[in-house]
Amino acid sequence: MKIRALLLALLLALTPVAGFAAVSPDEQLSDPRLEARAREVSKELRCMVCQNESIDDSDAELAKDLRMLVRKRILAGDTNAEVKQYLVARYGEFVLMKPPFQPATWLLWLGPGVILLGGGIGVILFLRRSSRRDENAIGNPALSEAERRRLDEIVKDEPSE
Amino acid sequence: MIAETGHFALVLALAVALVQMIVPAYGAWKGDHAMMRVGKPAALTQLMLVGIAFLALTLAFVVSDFSVALVANNSAVDKPLIFKISGVWGNHEGSMVLWVLILALYGALVALFGRNLPDRLRANVLAVQGSVGVAFLLFILATSDPFLRLDPAPFEGAGLNPILQDRALAFHPPWLYAGYVGFSMTFSFAIAALMEGRVDAAWARWVRPWALAAWLALTIGIAMGSWWAYYTLGWGGFWFWDPVENASLMPWLAGTALLHSAIVAEKRGALKSWTILLAILAFSLSLVGTFLVRSGVLTSVHAFAVSPARGVFVLAILGVFVGGSLTLYAWRAPMLKTGGLFAPISREGALLLNNLLLTASAAAVFIGTLYPLLLDAVGGPKITVGPPFFNTTFVPLWAPLLFMVPFGPMMSWKRGDFVAAGQRLIFAAGAAFVVCLTLYGVVSDGPWLAPIGMAAAVWLVVGALSEIAWRVKLFTAPAAESWRRARGLPRAAWGTMLAHGGLGIAVAGIVGVTAWKSERIVALPEGGTTSISGYELTLEKVGTRGGPNYDATTGVVRVERDGEFVTFLLPERRRYPTERQEKTEPAIYTTGFSDLYVVLGEGNRTGEWALRAYVNPLAPFIWLGGMVMALGGLVSLTDRRLRVGAPQRAKAKGRNATAPAE
After folding, report:
1. Does residue B380 lie within any of the structural domains?
2. pTM attached to this predicted model
3. Domain limits of chain A?
4. What is the CATH T-level fold of the domain A2-100, as seen in this structure?
5. How far is B412 from chain A (nearest CA, A)?
6. Given an 8 Å threshold on Cβ–Cβ distance, is A54 in contact with B581?
7. Chain B: closest CA distance from residue A158 (Å)
8. ipTM reported for the complex surpasses 0.95
């Protein structure tokens, strides 16, 4: 794992961590519905010793152990949420690929929306201001003879659309 | 001797960069033409010196001079030549030299081809470019010297990480850097404009080719990296929302916004100060990416705190350039004259909306990537921000963006007609609708959003074609007339069509793989069979073979469809003895519309081999789309408007007065 972390730090390139498709045949549950659930849950849990990899993607020992654990909990009758809760209780919220919405993450979850909203308001204000200028411009239609000639030239040059 | 020459060249390059930073800017300020003219020879000399340093380093790698520490740590004698060369930038120090080389190259290009730039603008641009060079050359010499010697020199090097020994990855960093560093050009133009307090249509026209070139290179770099990840990492994923990937996505998003706002600035003289801000942002995000990857902060905030030299240095560069440029912006931007009025429903309005959504999505990536680091740094809880966060924030931002894309080029400047634009897109809307309904009828599995995603892809592609069809009056005018119009269309219009259509193709690929991928994981003995999506796979045999610098365990997989032989696939597991590492080499059979992707896993004691097979529908479209987008950028770049000066353009336009406006 250390080498991978190093590699990451070394490359200013698109290099997600090198893991090789993880789930091995002997881990799979025989019931395809339960297995599908296990995969779904695994994708939302982080392999804590890896860099930004879910336990479903990682070939680390720990990830394998966690995958087995997830399957054990599912076989024991846990719902997906309960499985995740179980792992959070053991490893903390760090294990969740999707951080929960709580005071420490309000900024994270609301940030993009706030920026979009702020930007949107900015755009509206900008458009209103320029449309007011537009009206002013229309309210003052007097063109000098030279301006009129120049305008005709431009209109002639600029093909209609 | 070679290494010392390289080192000496870097030191000289720093001195020249200092001259390039100070003298032309001072000359521009004082109005001294002799001093302004220093910029050109300085930029060319800098390119020559950094080029010498880069060649020296490459030579050290090619001849495997293990007395150079960097070569000993990152190369080996038995490595194929191509990977010896790509090993130059497959490490921190060497990649920074490549960074500076590309920077110097851009500077030299302005010096050589910027003849029609006003003297003061050119002098200031080269000075700003020189200042970036000073910062990064100092960074290399102070914290990341690639030419350090090793005594005694080892007999064999440690080799290059096998993951990096790949042809696509070998050329991925140069493209990526050409993109990152390309935004230093638009940045330099923005700062120069602020220094002069003047932005006009000519300025926007000079900026656009650089923005296009940087965007084009970055698009290729990202597509290449994503393709590499797809076929190397072994589970057929193409985008992981990894911080390293996000580092390249942020400048791409800002750069895409910049490309579009520069059109408004050029054609209509509006949004000028916003365009300048975007140029600053795009480069700032490139620097943020450099900081994220170079400082080690991604591995852990604490690792960064333990050996902070590089991180703090890059952070200082970041602070000076971002802080300095934003301060300059806050001071000078209000002095820029605003121009070009327009109604909300117009081409300008559509491009403004494009900018709003692109910037917001860049902000979303920025927040998602940096939030866990910041939270950790201030002693908050450790959290993970993974793909689910990015998917939830990206989809709502991109859905309206994709919907709007075909409308943009159909709107007229100043005051557009939404309904009329919609009527011109009626065919695209119909096609999207039919595809959507058909998919709901035919495909039973996959998420309910998937058919809508495919409809968006069709909408984009047909919408892009509709724009050209409308411009050349296809079917509404005689064929000869359409042909004449098509030939008269500016290259930029074709570029737009390709870029927007390419986006649609990529969207189709992304939706296809995400929604309808199928997977089969089995343990097979030799001779065992399995099936996936209509393919029958037989693991005929597992053998070993030797490569140039590795040994491989190779599976021979016979692929059949409906009892007919299709192909043999040879997935491998390779062991690299020098590097003491393994990597898997998936085998892919592509029909062009979908990929059959096979990975050989480990063998177990009972003689069975783990075999993973995936069918990834439309996967090739992702990179095809990326390449078509890049081609669009290239075609736009050859537009005569970007090559010739304004006066010639006016004449040319007079001649083609009947051609549709762009």
Report:
1. no
2. 0.88
3. 2-100, 104-157
4. Helicase, Ruva Protein; domain 3 (1.10.8)
5. 7
6. no
7. 7
8. no
